[in-house]
From TrEMBL:
This is TrmB family transcriptional regulator. Residues 102-220 form the Transcription regulator TrmB C-terminal domain. InterPro entries: TrmB-like, Tscrpt_reg_TrmB_C, Tscrpt_reg_TrmB_N, WH-like_DNA-bd_sf, WH_DNA-bd_sf. It comes from Paenibacillus illinoisensis. Signal peptide: none annotated. CDD domains: PLDc_like_TrmB_middle (cd09124). Residues 2-70 form the Transcription regulator TrmB N-terminal domain.
Amino acid sequence: MLQKFGFTQYESQVYEAIFAQEEPLDASSIVNHSNVPKAKIYEVLNRLIDKGIVLTTMHGKKKLYTAVDLQSVILKIKADFEKDIEELNAYKIKRTFTDEHIWTLKDETSIGSNIEQLMAEADTSILFLAWNEKMEDYRTLLEQKEQQGVHVEVLSVGGLETSLTNKYALIPMLDKLEPLQLLIVDHAYLLFAGIENDSWKAIKTMSKPIVKAMTDYFYHDIALTQITKKYGDQLLQDEEISKLLARLIY
């Protein structure tokens, strides 16, 4: 049974041989009771001592060994397992290469899952543009990432109630608009989604030129949002500028 939890066959045999005896055993006796080769016995005993399930003491000039109670071993195995799970759960594998391919996603659920995963794995920054209905789906996660020290900036079309520090709300100038989602994570990962033929489609890439261009696009929209908010009434009085703004801001 111990072998199912990472112990070798020899370790299992030695532990059982020691545990089954009422008195502590020396190495020679353990060899006889465990059928582990004499040449291997000290190596196996030392591993069991290091694992904390065999104890040792000196009796005169002889070294004796005794086994920790099986229930204590079970508790130790359980505690070690839970600790390993926590460490594995906290461990992040970061890509060490740049994938220049442009990948296509066609399912709305898959797009949403990819957005959530990219946000969750963000280390330094998140830039996110979306209509307020979609933005709300990720609001809690975005707020958590900001609390963890990630720089978060969002541009919500239609506005959003959130505790985020860097938030911008764009009230569109046109009534009929097709929604989109733009996510840039750590200035390295990009996902851009929109609706085509009544279905969500998206691209996902690490291509540096595209990431840079879409980062500029994001801040371009923030700039337009702030300019129109502050000077909108004046700008809209100019027919030429009004037409340009209507084309630029969705």
